[in-house]
Design goal:
The complex is a heterodimer of chains A (about 100) and B (about 475).
Chain A: H1 23-40, H2 44-59, H3 67-87
Helix pairs in contact in A: 1-2, 1-3, 2-3
Chain B: H1 2-32, H2 40-63, H3 65-78, H4 80-116, H5 136-177, E1 180-181, E2 197-198, E3 203-209, E4 214-222, H6 229-237, E5 243-250, E6 259-264, H7 265-274, H8 276-281, E7 287-288, E8 298-302, H9 305-311, H10 314-322, E9 327-336, E10 355-363, H11 379-394, H12 399-445, H13 449-481
Antiparallel strand pairs in B: 1-3, 2-3, 3-4, 4-5, 5-10, 6-8, 6-9, 7-8, 9-10
Helix pairs in contact in B: 1-2, 1-3, 5-11
Classes of the chains: A mainly alpha (about 100), B alpha+beta (about 475).
GO molecular function, one term (chain B): calcium ion binding
Keywords (chain B): Membrane, Signal, Transmembrane, Transmembrane helix
Membrane topology (chain B): Single-pass type I membrane protein
Chain lengths: ~100, ~475
Amino acid sequence: AAVPPARYKPPATETNPALEDPTPDYMNLLGMVFSMCGLMLKLKWCAWIAVYCSFISFANSRSSEDTKQMMSSFMLSISAVVMSYLQNPQPMSPPW
Amino acid sequence: MKNLYIFIVVLFIPWNFSLAKYDEFEDGDDIMEYDDNDFAEFEDVSEDAVTESPQRIITTEDDEEEATVELEGQDENQEDFDDADTQEGDTESEPYDDEEFEGYEEKPDASHSKNKDPITIVNVPAHLQNSWESYYMEILMVTGLLAYIMNYIIGKNKNNRLAHAWFNTHRELLESNFALVGDDGTNKEATSTGKLNQENEHIYNLWCSGRVCCEGMLIQLKFLKRQDLLNVLARMMRPASDQVQIKVTMNDEDMDTYVFAVGTRKALVRLQKEMQDLSEFCSDKPKSGAKYGLPDSLAILSEMGEVTEGMMDAKMIHFLTHYADKIDSVQFSDQFSGPKLMQEEGQLTKLPETKKTLLFTFNVPGSGNTSPKDMESLLPLMSMVIYSIDKAKKFRLNREGKQKADKNRARVEENFLKLTHVQRQEAAQSRREEKKRAEKERIMNEEDPEKQRRLEEAALRREQKKLEKKQMKMKQIKVKAM
């Protein structure tokens, strides 16, 4: 009797969280921390770094990643940038 | 010396002017005695000039008498008239000079006084300046973001093109060997999708099955993260290459029991530390494959010599030698369970599940700068995979080898059980206690007193039986000991 061909099973990394690449999660967290800093402490450069973190997290995201999480982190960082400029329209001064 | 003389001559022409003048004054004094009335005006002035000049004459004549003597004769004749003019010019210029310089002296004073009063210029705040230039940091940031987005799009597309180039090259071979090519597990029926399954922007999967000997084959195209600019910049420091990982799951009856690996020395050292099966069954360090004609870059990890002998047949050696630069590691194992799981000591109560597996990891040539054409060079490696599947099915250990293998596996299991003995005992103990507690609760909750009494009696009887059994066992042990 012919055995039907076996079906696809997701590779082990999805079942074993220790093997997954942690970059998107770290970047997500970092982005949120920086955007909160930027909002609370009114630091423009914090807000800009938050935008960058959110982009990096998106680029490294896994397929199983929730798009809602991505979008929320992105929106938070954009709002941090906008709020910083509304409160203080002066341009950013370089650190040097 | 000639040059020196010329230089000295040039220097002393002005001296000679003055000398000639004053010489004439000396002579002129004698002449003026006769013309007092006409030249009375100039007498005072000339006397003043004469009083000044003797000092000069003394100093110059003392210094360089030769030079003055040579030129005096020439100059006197030429400058008789000139001297008078210059004399007049000198006398006339003196009052003018004072007048002229009066104004000039004042003017510098005036400008000095102006500098002393400070002028403060107030800086206009940048955001009121109405110029885009003051926002250059923001423009820089936005440019950086745009660059990131551009790189994302370019990287994503490159990975996509590479993946499809690989698939187009390998499609024919795969379709001729496997009934089911491409499955993402979502369809109810097992039909070939004939497409790669994109897991990520840099990871593509392909599941093939429907071949004799093997249960299935999972191919993972693990590309570099070209879509992430940070990764691209990091790779400029540390070059890396794309990888193709092929995992063939064998049927239980189609592979004998052995653990074997061949690959680059660096990869094998790493795998020996990371992989559960390699660390347990292959205790020796990776050995050189030179005995079998393999290049120096490749090494072998094996459970026993017989396996190596059996695996290294002519065709395999040919594959390994010709494509050594593209091979990272090849692992055949009947105890494959993936990398070692980092768990707390208390949790591991059961050995991880093992599957008979052939695992191949190939490096795509180009070391990062790959083009779709490079994918074609990986096609012979797929033939090697297919050949290995058939070989693994055919290769059987002889009796001696089989005994050794069984002993090894029993040893590993025993070690594992010893390690977890305490944990298993505790687990069993806690389970028993749970059961008792559940029983007691049931008895307590029973409302009918009759039923309660009956249940209690049943529990008592069970406990008595257990005690009796234990006593019997103890007696047996004592008898045996005697």
